[in-house]
Amino acid sequence: MSQKKRIAIIPGDGIGREVIPEAVKVITASGAAVEIATFDWSAERFLADAVTVPPDGFAMLGREFDAILVGAFGDPRVPSNIHAKEILLGMRFKMDLYANVRPVRLLDASLCPLKGIEPKDIDFVVIRENTEGVYVDAGGIFKQGTVDEVAIQEDINTRKGVERAVRYAFDYCERHHKQDGSPRKRVLLCDKSNAMTYSGGLWQRVFKEVAREYPQITAEHMYVDALCMQMVRDPRQFDVIVTNNMFGDIITDLAAGLQGGLGMAASGNIHPGKTSMFEPVHGSAPPIAGKNVANPVGAILTAAMMLAHLGMVMEAGKIEASVLEAVRQKKTTQDIGGVLGTREAGDWVAEHCG
Length: 354
Ligand code: NAD
Ligand code: IPM
Ligand code: MN
What we know:
The protein contains eleven helices and twelve strands. The chain has helices spanning about 15-30, 45-50, 55-65, 80-95, 160-175, 195-210, 225-235, 245-260, 295-310, 315-330, 340-350; strands spanning about 5-10, 35-40, 65-70, 100-105, 125-130, 140, 150-155, 185-190, 220-225, 240-245, 270, 275-280. Helix 1 (about 15-30) crosses helix 9 (about 295-310), helix 9 runs antiparallel to helix 10 (about 315-330) and helix 10 packs across helix 11 (about 340-350). It is globular, with a radius of gyration of 20 Å. Nicotinamide-adenine-dinucleotide binds near residues 88, 279 and 288.
């Protein structure tokens, strides 16, 4: 008898609270053997009792769960965004989830804003370093509010942090195939080492060292500014991209645009062997929250990614196939050409993934 995997669910704020229930609905419909516990960590909870993460919260997640499925954080009533920082970045940093894996796939030609691009042309992945960089919030403000004000935001890059992210990218390349079954062959470093010479220099040196251990994989490089242009001009050329925390954040929103928008993009925050966290790339989208219009596909594909990570490859495959069919038949929300609401789009995927 197989043991059920334990999943912690944290819907969060805004549309997170609408898309995550759809993802859970679909997980259940796929027949995946999971046990679910839901946590209310959110702006609502923070406004009620000033708690972002309860004491022992991250240790508890690591101890008691096999994976975590998260919605999004961000609420206009918490302008400091402190709860999002403590919960979301807290999980990434304190649970040491160092590889943010963001697959970029086009499910249907109609979703891509570029001319003449088909699903086979967009199938790459961004591995984003997830525990360092400017996100560490090292630095400070001096003489705040005066004309002499100084703001410093340090870019922290450690050899260990860079190396494990780069190695993850090469290992990923070695172990994963493209959707069409062909092997992945290339890892590209995206940086800004022409201007940021210290941090970029470290990434450059570590990347070249690690690349030598993988002679069968082609190692490439592009500056982040040129990469943005290339991603729009010809996304066919990308396979596995590895980059720092901030560039990874930015280029994956750009990449989401190629996939049909933020409602389509999935991600996993992974530390091999530890409890990992999965979340759609999009945020809480306050203007559309509570209206039953948010696209649940990103959250549903994120759930599939989580199941595959936990070894439930068949269930993940069924969910992905159902999403693909929904997109092709336009049984979707309006942002990707359908007429359904969030719940109805979730229902359709759930009904077709059994
Ligand atoms: P956003 O991703 O919430 O929204 C950007 C745009 O994409 C908006 O036009 C929105 O309507 C659209 N969009 C996003 N998800 C969609 C979906 N599922 N279906 C249809 N349309 C969708 O980014 P933002 O507006 O920059 O940020 C809003 C809040 O979310 C902020 O507080 C931000 O800090 C937070 N945020 C959180 C996360 C996270 O928790 N992982 C990620 C990004 C942004
Ligand atoms: C993301 C988000 C977060 C990030 C924000 C909410 C801090 O944009 O997950 O892409 O920048 O990592
Ligand atoms: Mn982002």
